[in-house]
Amino acid sequence: xxxxxxxxxxxxxxxxxxxxxxxxANEVATRPGGxxxxxxxxxxxxxxxxxxxxxxxxxxxxxHVIPMAIGGHKEVSKFICRTCNSERGARWEAxxxxxxxxxxxxxxxxxxxxGKHPDLKVQTASGEKLRLQSDTVLVxxxxxxxxxxxxxxxxxxxxxxxxxxxxxxxxxxxxxxxxFDVLGGLREMSTEDSYLDSPLALSFRYGGPEAGxxxxxxxxxxxxxxxxxxxxxxxxLTYLEDPSPDALPPFWVFFDADLxxxxxxxxxxxxxxxxxxxxxxxxxxxVEFFNxxxxxxxxxxxxxxxxxxxxxxxxxxxxxxxxITVDFDRVPPRLDDIRMPKExxxxxxxxxxxxxxxxxxxxxxxxxxxxxxxxxxDALRAVGLDPTAEDVPAELKxxxxxxxxxxLRPYIRSxxxxxxx
Length: 421
What we know:
Blueprint lengths: L5 E7 L2 E7 L41 E2 L10 E2 L5 H18 L1 H6 L13 E4 L5 E4 L5 E3 L3 E6 L4 E6 L3 H14 L5 H7 L19 H16 L10 H8 L9 E3 L16 E8 L4 E8 L3 E9 L6 E8 L4 E2 L24 H37 L14 H21 L4
InterPro entries: HNH_5 (IPR029471)
Organism: Massilia oculi
Pfam families: HNH_5
């Protein structure tokens, strides 16, 4: 391969994982130093790790160690300034959010500062284009309308999740068929939820220039709380400060060994860990998102300070801190010995399969809960009750139950059609 950066692809059926790796043998320039900044009170001020601005006043901002869009909650305040965060950090984290959106949305990951995940455009194996909403509902990417002229009446089938859109489409049909009774059609209109008959065909990759920088920045954000100095992190900082997409990444997609000694198998986690290894004269970082997306980072070379390690891990679904132990002794002493295989290693395949199993189980539970809740609400409306009512009068219970089961029928049918796992 020629060029400044080697790129390898893992191809797994419809899933791709792109690995962009750096090399450890190249020398990099140390980060330029500067004069010490002082606060107006005379106290020493912390300086942004990416520029010379002092971290005082409006320059101070909270920076998530793990991007909040994928469930990070821990923030540090003595790392980068507001300008660097908004001009660079936000762009890098947006790419991480985009790459992992399916996992975040399907598993109902709790965003660091709240809010909903954006819709994700997906496609089934049969070619149907849909959008996955944050509430697990799949909706057509574009509304569809089919008109069947039966002579004495029109049969109209509309696929949309928006009642207003449905009414607009009925009005459009009426313009093409002047004799069509719009009000009568609206009175006779019935709705039914449908479920996928064809599996989703997903394409996935992580890393690259933008997301790679975000993952490296996660290591530095955690490192800022350890007492380490920017001068010890020249390799990582040189990468972050170089805007070129061809800048040499200081990281490897790492599956030579499993660094997690107590890896959970039943829940999702994100992890960032940093270690100072004076024996090897280096500072390393390790990032793992969603149990499988793993990189090993060479943060700095020539380190001669005290040995240290710091780790932050979180379950992004319930936002609880996770107990994760990272063993950097499993990393080869010579980073040049790390090689990217041409085919996906078994460790990657197993990890991706485990993540898929966990996310699918969470998604199934959410779909079931959504179906039951919607059926109950629609049944309340059908019997003339407020959809927020908590109790059903005794005289309406049988009618409500019939309506509830009728509304739930599409979901039950879909479950009966599922192949046993």
